[in-house]
Amino acid sequence: MEYEYFKNLLLKQSDGLTEKDAILVLNEKDIIWGDLTFTFKTQGNGWRTAIYCNNSDTYITPQDLNPIEEKWFFAQVTELSMEKYKALQTA
Asked: Which positions ≥6 away from 6 have C-beta within 8 Å?
């Protein structure tokens, strides 16, 4: 989850938002932006997730995420869970 990713996402999803405005939104709160790699692997009926912080070369937990990263993370888990549920329904 990188700063640039969210800036570009804001610009893409917000009609008329300038790059300067997107930067102001992202800097509005005291958020430390990480360079994170998320890995999602199926495990039984759920998901096994690894979150790697490229800045510190360590694995972190969802509790270590800032609010924006946490929201994105849980949205991904929800989407993957729904896909798996739909696949089980058609099997």
From this structure: 26, 68
Query: How many alpha carbons lie under 13 Å from residue 36 in its C-beta half-sphere?
Result: 24
List pLDDT tens digits, range 38-69.
888 888 777 788 999 888 899 999 898 888 78
Nearest-angstrom CA–CA distance, 30 and 22: 15
**pLDDT over threshold 70, residue 1:** no
3-class secondary structure for the chain?
A: CCHHHHHHHHHHHCCCCCHHHHHHHHHCCCCCCCCEEEEEEEECCEEEEEEEECCCCEEECHHHCCHHHHHHHHHHHHHHHHHHHHHHHHC
**For the whole model, what pTM was predicted?**
0.58
Q: Which amino acid is at 74?
A: F
